[in-house]
Amino acid sequence: GERRPPPPPIIKQPPTIIKQSVKDYIVDPRDNIIIECEAKGTPVPTFSWRRNGKFFNIGKDPRVTMRKRSGTLEVGFRSGGRPEDYEGEYQCFASNDYGVALSNKILLRVSKAPLWPKEVLEPMVVSEGSPLVLPCNPPPGLPPPFTFWMNSAMTPIPQDKRVSMGLNGDLYFSNVLAHDAHTDYSCNARFLFTHTIQQKNPFTLKVHTNEPYNDTSFNATDPYGGRKVAESTPTFLSPSGSESSKMVLRDEQLLLECIAAGLPTPTIKWFKKGGDLPGRKVKFENYNKTLKIVSVSEEDAGEYVCMANNHLGSIRHSIFVQVKAAPYWLDKPTNLVLAPDENGRLVCRANGNPKPTIQWLINGQPLESSLPNPSRHVLGDTIIFRSVQMGTSAVYQCNASNEHGYLLANAFVSVLDMPPRMLGPKNQLIKVIENNRTLLDCPFFGSPLPELRW
User: Fold this and answer.
1) CB of 205 within 8 A of CB of 182?
2) For residues 319 and 364, is the Cβ–Cβ distance under 8 A?
3) How far apart are CA 46 and CA 66, in angstroms?
4) CA 8, CA 136: separation in Å to the nearest integer?
């Protein structure tokens, strides 16, 4: 029979995190809390956690268990306890003899669906043709609720160019018609996690109308039934004033809004100073009152102008948009496997606005507080290794942070000394057809990387 190849050597390997919970982790208070952290390595890593920067003693808390061969935590509330008591910042450490890898700092918060404050809403009284804003002010949920307006029959309030909900949830009327008079304008908040809908107490709207000046002029298509209603030039209901500013993060969504009052209902148009609105990126919503760019990039910064006009006149509002950026990778450090006396480098390049600061850690401790190592030199975003020695395997962390966020990358440096060896079966017989191409494979392993000769 054929000789089996010897098993490949067991390669010692520092830990690598392969699964972790998201940085901003919102959990449902009705479920058990599960905070994920899994890592691989040889030998198999052991796990520990920090909570709010301090060692988290899992053994002391009967509600917390850690999964086998994993760092994943589960917090159960069968025997009482409050999920809110576990809110905070968690970080997982996976270690073996060759180094320590870190998870991100996971900010755990419990979702909230607070109630509307109790309030008595006075009836709103307006004259026909005037503008009106019905405030919603939904309770600040975590995550924020989705808002919409209904009447008591649970029918949505019809929206159009004249009547629509703003981004803040308020209901805006560019001008009020007599048939807007109802007793049941109710703002609703739908909460994502609990799938509950809460209704604000309804508003009653009373509309003062002038007497018709004579019945013969009544015309079925005239919304004022022959009543004299003064027309008005456009004014802005939101935003107020002639200019405002907005900061948005790169890759996030930009939403700009202009809502105008006036009779007849004004039309909204958008421009960008010193350039065109890129048609493929820009969408208009809510009857042109909202300008939306789904994934913002640096070139979307600048001055946006909305113009509201009807036949009596036009007004404009400038919104100055600034684009900032949480750190993003240009060059993420990758694992290094080196042989004794070899050289190598770890590179950690990130960009952002403001420019991120780079900090290096070794096995989770700041590099500057670790023992000096003559074969290691830090040059800003690069660590250079010169003629490394056995016993200097470690996991390095690079943290790039600015006021808008951070990136944390783990990369191990593994120093291996392994004699060259063939990994394929010995004395293989390969049959080939004349004039056809064939491939002879010779798998091998070693550290330093052996030279191959046929």
Assistant:
1) yes
2) no
3) 11
4) 67
User: Tens digit of pLDDT for each residue in 261-277?
Assistant: 999 999 999 999 988 88
Instruction: For Cα atoms 74, 76, 77, give the angle at the middle one, nearest 5 degrees.
Output: 155
Q: Which of 26, 243, 279, 227 is nearest to 142 (CA)?
A: 26
Alpha-carbon dihedral 50, 52, 58, 59, rounded to 10 degrees? 100
* CB-neighbour burial class of residue 266 (10 A; exposed 0-12, middle 13-18, buried 19+): buried
Name the amino acid, one letter, at 293.
I
Q: In what order do the strands lie in the sheet with 171-173?
A: 132-134, 171-173, 163-165
Torsion of CA 212, 218, 222, 228, to 10 degrees: -20
Structure confidence by residue, pLDDT tens digits, 368-393: 998 889 999 999 899 999 999 999 99
- Please, which residues have CB within 8 angstroms of residue 212's CB and are 6 or more apart in sequence? 218, 225, 226, 227
CA distances from 75 to 67, 99, 143 (A): 11, 28, 21
Q: Per-residue pLDDT tens for 183-226? A: 999 999 999 888 889 999 999 999 998 876 555 555 556 777 67
> What is the full DSSP assignment across 219-254?
-TT-TTTTB----EEEEEEES-SSEEEEEEETTS-E
CA distances from 417 to 12, 14, 338, 421 (A): 11, 15, 8, 12
Residue 420's pLDDT is 63
What is the identity of the amino acid at 282? V
Collapsing DSSP to helix, strand or coil, 180 comes out as: helix
Domains by residue range for the chain, with CATH: 13-110 (2.60.40.10), 112-212+220-228 (2.60.40.10), 231-327 (2.60.40.10), 332-418 (2.60.40.10)
Cis check for the bond before 354: say yes or no (omega within 30 of 0).
Answer: yes
CB-based burial label for 230 (10 Å; 0-12, 13-18, 19+): exposed
Asked if 251 contacts 296 with a C-beta cutoff of 8 angstroms, the reply is yes
Say how far apart CA 241 and CA 239 lie, in whole Å: 7
Say how far apart CA 364 and CA 79 lie, in whole Å: 35
Ranges of H-type helices in 163-288: none
- Residues 141 and 168: their CA atoms lie apart, in Å, by 14
State mean pLDDT over 45-52: 98
Q: Do the bridges between strand 313-331 and strand 243-249 make them parallel or antiparallel, or are there none, so unpaired?
A: parallel
User: Across the chain, what does the average pLDDT equal?
Assistant: 91
